[in-house]
Amino acid sequence: MTDKTGMAGITEPIYYIDRSDIREGKLAEVREGMLDLADFIEAREPQLIAYRFYIDESGTTMTTVAVHPDPASLELHMELGGPKFRAFRELIRMNSIDVYGRPSPAAAEQLRRKAEMLGGGTVTFHSLQAGFSRFTDRPRPSSRP
């Protein structure tokens, strides 16, 4: 079976980006929370390709970037991280969640609930139209002659 990407039987990765306003006076707590959440997720989600937090130069906006290998990874992330995400309720106001790829219906609903819990930001799903990734499972060149 071939999907819209033209790849038979291959599940596309999910790219997740969210943006939030950091509440006044909460920057230090947000930084601490990011470290705690990153450690928590790293220990429990070995399949996750990337999970990064960024703060803009003014210290007023936090951006989260995650790359999941497949929709099941995003769903697991939402289940495991849910209680940890709640700790951010008093620290940030979610502006937006953008998802690039096709999440499961369950994960899509979890994302909508997360956005609502953290301030009501928009959730937008984007479908792959063209392109490629170089970080997929590819054979590595042998270092032996």
Overview of this protein structure:
With 145 residues, the protein is α+β, with helices and mostly antiparallel strands. It contains 3 helices and 5 strands, in the order βαββαβαβ. The protein has helices at residues 27-44, 71-86, 105-117, and strands at residues 14-22, 50-55, 61-68, 92-100, 122-126. It has a 5-stranded mixed β-sheet with strand order 2-3-1-4-5. Helix 2 (71-86) runs parallel beside helix 3 (105-117). It is globular. Residues 1-8 and 138-145 have low confidence and may be disordered.
Number-wise, the strands total 5
Give the overall pLDDT as a whole number: 88
Helical stretch tally = 3
- Tell me, briefly, the overall form: globular
Q: Cα distance, first to last residue?
A: 38 Å
In short:
By secondary structure, the chain is an alpha+beta fold. The chain is 32% helix and 26% strand. The chain is built from three helices and five strands, in the order βαββαβαβ.
Topology, element by element:
Layout: E1 14-22, H1 27-44, E2 50-55, E3 61-68, H2 71-86, E4 92-100, H3 105-117, E5 122-126
Parallel strand pairs: 4-5
Antiparallel strand pairs: 1-3, 1-4, 2-3
Helix pairs in contact: 1-2, 2-3
Descriptive terms for the model:
five-stranded mixed β-sheet; disordered C terminus; 145 residues; alpha+beta; 5 strands
